[in-house]
Every structure is written in C-alpha cells, then in structure tokens.
Amino acid sequence: MTAATKKIWTWIKEEIFRKDSYYRLKVIHIHTPSLREVPEDIPNLANHFLIKYCQFMQTELKQFTPGALQSLLGYPWPGNARQLENEVKRPVASVRRKSITEDHLDPSIRNPGAPIQNAQPKGEPAPKSPASRSLPDAVEQLERRLIEEALRNSGGNKQKAAQVLGLSRQGLIKKLKRLSINQ
Q: Are 158 and 173 a contacting pair, CB within 8 Å?
C-alpha cells in the first residue's frame, strides 16, 4: 500500500473522505517504477534529455561516452527522472566538447558512496565551513562562480549565458555590475 493510499484510508476512517468516492476513483492502478527498478531505461532517458537540451540551448548535439553511461547506470537515482534530467542539463550547458565523459558528471554520480565534501572540483580551494562565513557571502561567491562559468562556456555571449542561468540579459548585466565582474 502506498503512502497516498494509506493517507486516503486514514481520511476514510476519520470520515473526511467517502469510501464510495474512493472506489469510484480507483478504477485503474498504474505503477510507475523508479529508475532504480528499470536501469535499462536510463540510457534512453539520458539520451532523450541530451537531445532535448542540446536543441533548447542551440548547441551542437553531444553524446555520452561509454564511461559516462556506466556512471549513470551505477547511480541509484533517488530523485528519479527529474534528477537524471537535471544531471544531463548541466553538462549540456557547460561542456564545450561533443562528448560528455564521466568527469563531466557530478562527483556524487561518479562515486555514489563517496562523501559529498570529497566532491571538490580540481584546482578550487576547499570551501570554508558554514560557521566561518555568512550566508550572503556564500551566495555571492556561488553566484559569481556560476556567472563566470556561464560566460566562459558561452564565449562571452551574454544572451546565451543569461539563458543558461535562467536570467534575462538585462538581469545578467545588473548582476555583473553588482558583483563587479568585467565582461
């Protein structure tokens, strides 16, 4: 019995929901399996999202290397298809090459058992502990890094960078001024 079904039965017992209404609505039960139940769907879904976001971002069609697909297959996907979609969208926006390798995937996807603090990108200093900096400082640092990365990956094209960041071009320009990022 699913959590939703248990909740409805609680409502029926409390006379919040009518039993006859439950049986009128319960005509067909459709079980949608999670990705970990159907790992054979992962490559097809990943490639679908890859094509979708390459077209949306108007970039050259990319492909996954066998190693990247192995990493995707080895991950349990607690966030299901939505998490997979987000994981595919990120390298489409940030990788310039035609092939997406396992190195382009989030470290937690490549090494599902590794602690998150070990997922530090190469060449970047380790983040300060939360107690040693304020939330506004941390947000500003993250915002700066994402904007600089988007501009770098778009070859300085503010319109494309803004699109990847989910901002208007004008919104990006205001953030560039506020953060004193020269472009």
A: yes
Burial of 2 (0-12, 13-18, 19+ CB in 10 A): exposed
pTM over 0.90: no
Q: Which helix (H) or strand (E) holds 87?
A: helix 80-94
Q: What's the Cα-to-Cα distance from 53 to each of 12, 91, 127, rounded to whole Å? A: 44, 10, 30
Render each residue's pLDDT in the chain as its tens digit; 183 residues. Answer: 778 788 889 999 999 989 998 888 888 877 888 888 899 999 999 999 999 999 999 999 999 999 999 999 999 998 889 999 999 999 998 888 999 999 999 888 887 765 544 444 444 454 454 455 677 777 788 888 889 888 888 888 999 988 888 889 998 999 898 888 886
DSSP lists the bridge partners of residue 100 as 64
CA atoms within 13 A on the CB side of 86: 8
Rounded Cα–Cα distance for residues 88 and 16 (Å) = 43
Write 159-168 long-range contacts (CB < 8 A, 24+): 160/57, 163/57, 164/57, 164/93
Q: How many CB atoms lie within 10 A of CB 87?
A: 21
